[in-house]
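Components:
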Amino acid sequence: MRRALHLRAAAPYLLLLPGLLWLVVFYVYPAFQMFLTSLWTGNLDTGYQQTWNWGIYQEAITEYWPWLARSIIYGGLATILAFALGFPLAYAIAFRGGQYKNVLLFLVIAPFFTSFLLRTISWKIILADSGLVLGPLKQIGILPEEFRLLATPAAVIAGITYNFLPFMTLPLYVALEKIDKRLIEAAEDLYAGPWRPQGTVAGLAIGGVLGLVVGLVMDYGPFALSIPFGLAGAAIGTWLISQAFIRVTLPLALPGIFAGSLLTFIPAVGDFVNAELLGNPQSLMIGNVIQARYLQVTDYPTASALSFILMLAILIGLFIYARIIGTEELTGASI
Amino acid sequence: MATSSVAVGARRSRADRVARAVDHWILPIYVVGVTAYLILPVAVMILFSFNDPTGRSNLVWRGFSLEAWLSPLGRPGLGEAVRNSLVVAFLSTIIATALGTLIALALTRYQFRGRATTNVLIFLPMATPEIVLGASLLTMFVASVQLPIPQGVLFPLNIRTILIAHIMFNISFVVVTVKARLSNFPRNLEEAAMDLGANEWTTFWKVTFPLILPGILAAALLAFSLSIDDYVVTAFTSGQTETFPLFIYGSQLRGIPVQVNVIGTIIFGSAVLLVLLTTLWQRRVAARDYGAGV
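Structure:
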């Protein structure tokens, strides 16, 4: 009897043991080793010594901060753009999907079934200087002959946005799908009508600022995009956003917004494939530096230091996020 | 009183008209547009698998040809790469699905100390950029030569180290997927089985396992597709071994052969077929359970 009780108490640990052991040996310990390696001195030919060279962190940051900053800006912009694209999509599927709901969800995840390298290479074909998109536009004279998308920051950000759009859309869909539609109807019955004039102003401001940032990052100048983005924002704020949406739908969708932006931002910041395939030498990200330092230069200490900084930055961000929304929500909402 | 209600009525009907226009036209057009944007690269990949393979690279359309489809592995190194990818995907799926399902069972059926820590440990690999996962494994494998373990286990890098890495990043995704299935599990069915004299072992295999099997299969499917598509972690843990994504990346500089698109299309087609089959099978099971009054 006693022995059976012991066994019952041990049961969860026995179930956990093999899997958690794997994660400790091949996730936690390597992260620790990476930290130790960052404090090595030497090179692959003469061997490395553990010299506790803390100065490497300062060196790495002073030398590579433009790449770090660019990664955060590109990752952040891609997250915002994926949200702007994904939210209406998730909303339409959740609220108006009807009989097409499953088909649409399937189309959202279908890109996952193809190699993401092949998808990114497809974008290379599509965005080529006289390819599927630019070719016709140039022929009818909308765009000048020398205009290009490939090998620009715009292509990198668009590529990242494309790659992680399903990661944004699915959690948003899950959150929106759960909302009791009667709450929204009740709000509408209680005169939660159009959100004017605040909606117009908010839309104009958000669209304008977003257009300004996108325009500056993509080298189109400050106003090329802020004017159309601002006008589009104002139109959306005026006619599409109701008080019911601001006060009921949006707050209830927050867990999905948190989960989706995490699932998009984290891989986006560390990405190097889009920058490598779609960008130019001036649009490389921190992932490109880490990859080159490890695999081409075999400068393990600097590469480990940069990789550790990236990991630490994301963990600190996550910790702040978790304090705001709660750990259970964070670990559970990412389903 | 009367005028204000008329005004409210007029305002509402205009808002209704806008809302109806959005519902009927703008949202559907938008949905079609965004899904087309999502699918377009996949369509281009499939289309270019029928490209005439005479040129150096596969970036420009040269005319319809079935040549690549008739010899899908007809490039030096491609067959080996695809074989390695399949071996790693199969083995990592089986091992990660087993380990992850056990963790999911522990998390959903038992209260125990260390639960929160376990949750965090499961969550962290999913919240770490792939490049950091790969980089930290590489430093660990390289440094392992100084550890008191048999030589050749963790270094030099080969298909074994790729497999270790893929199992690691797949475990968390399996746990999350199976947990979702287990969280609304009808425990009363197990109690009924025990009341009818079945012991825990019999109850698990006759009642619990068949009910969570769809969740386990979904997890396995996810793990397989993550593994077969992985480039970043594999690039750091492969050494001289080549997998299909590494082959694509490697040939990206000297021109991608059309055969790569053929293999990509075959993988895409098989995944779509598998998902369709599992969905149909789950529907049939659900219909049967409904019929039996469960």
